[in-house]
Amino acid sequence: MADPETRGALVHLVFGTMAAQAVRAAVRLGVPNALAGRERTAPEVAADCATDPDATRRLLRALAALDLLTETGPDTFALTPAGALLRSDQPGSLHAFAEMFTDETITGAWQRLDHAVRTGNTTFADVFGTDFFAHLKSRPELSATFNASMSQGTALVAETLPARYPFERFHTVADIGGGDGTLLAAILRAHPHLRGILYDTEEGQAEAGATLGPVADRVDRATGDFFTGVPAGADVYLLKSVIHDWPDDACATILDHCRRVVPADGRLLIVEPILPDVVDEAAPPVMYLSDLNMLVNLGGRERTRADFDALCRRCGFALTDVVDLPPAAFRIIEATPVQQ
User: Fold this and answer.
1) In this protein, which residues make up the domain named O-methyltransferase C-terminal (predicted)?
2) Nearest Cα to 238, choosing from 184, 282, 193?
3) DSSP strand E in the chain: where?
């Protein structure tokens, strides 16, 4: 029989879904906000959240065991730094991110992961009757949560990327599939000489006005579908967390459209994680879970450097550099247009 530590590690993984749902319940009920900046008893939290006191106590204990709270005394709880990230009312929040990635819209198709592995096909439409983005479009409130989650998930990259790439020699950055403009706004704030183009669907950039704020006068907003074309006029084309959503043929369509408009001295920047050739201890498990998430929900994948190199060459680009973005797992994959 395996030793207790090994057995415990496996049980911990099996119970992972339950842990995620405890986080979801806390976010939906407003528990982190009720505990903001102070110690409170379970009945006090229950009164704020309009929940059953005993059931609330049980949830709070579970959250404490998950290191999101600490029980500072009998039946008295406070947020840990990790738990504080679930508050909706502070900078750096992951509230929407946690809500979206524990929602059945993300988790539903995972119930059929075995079928996806057996067939190689996404299972989202089997569960919801349509594709992922069409489902979001039909539910505006969910679409807004998704947009907020993407913004929150981009925040760490937005803090580091502007200083990690030499934007000084360029004049206009086009953020293709740029959502609410979180990353583009950070680049423009750090580089006042730049102008920007924000390109996404109407739903994708619904919250862009508020996000762009002081740099809005330097941004041309264009609405459209990157499968039909991308706007001209930039010398840097940026794709952050776009390519991993799609299979190779769809990615080639997007990159072909970029290749048609990028100038000879321009650049393509793909911002994605890069899978190592062989799994090692340094590779965060979330990269591989994201790869499976792409499989079941979107049909895309995470890729190795060789995969990105092949995709770029297929579309008339040469991969010229890879820049780390610590502490995030993302990389800047730089490619230049190959002259015919």
Assistant:
1) 110-317
2) 184
3) 40-41, 69-73, 76-79, 172-176, 195-200, 219-223, 236-240, 267-275, 303-304, 317-324, 330-337
Average pLDDT over residues 47-64: 98
Exposed, middle or buried: residue 167 (CB in 10 Å: 0-12, 13-18, 19+)?
A: buried
**Active site positions, annotated:** 244
8 Å CB contact between 77 and 92: no
- Write the DSSP string, 47-110: HHHT--HHHHHHHHHHHHHTTSEEEEETTEEEE-HHHHTT-SSSTT--HHHHHHHTSHHHHGGG
Cβ neighbors of 277 (< 8 A, separation 6 or more) are: 304, 305, 306
Per residue in 32-54, pLDDT (tens digit) is 999 998 999 999 999 999 999 99
Phi-psi region of 234 (alpha: psi -120 to 50; beta: other; left: phi over 0): beta
pLDDT at 315: 97
Task: For CA atoms 41, 27, 294, 226, give the dihedral sign.
Answer: negative
Cis amide leading into 327 (omega within 30): yes
pLDDT of 322 reads: 97
Tell me: the pLDDT tens digits for 88-144? 998 889 999 999 999 999 999 999 999 999 999 999 999 999 999 999 999 999 999
Q: Which helix (H) or strand (E) holds 298?
A: none
For residue 234, what are its two tokens?
């930039």
Q: Token pair 């947020």 is at which residue?
A: 79
- DSSP code for 338: P
The CA distances from residue 114 to 122, 171, 302, 307, in Å, are 11, 48, 19, 25
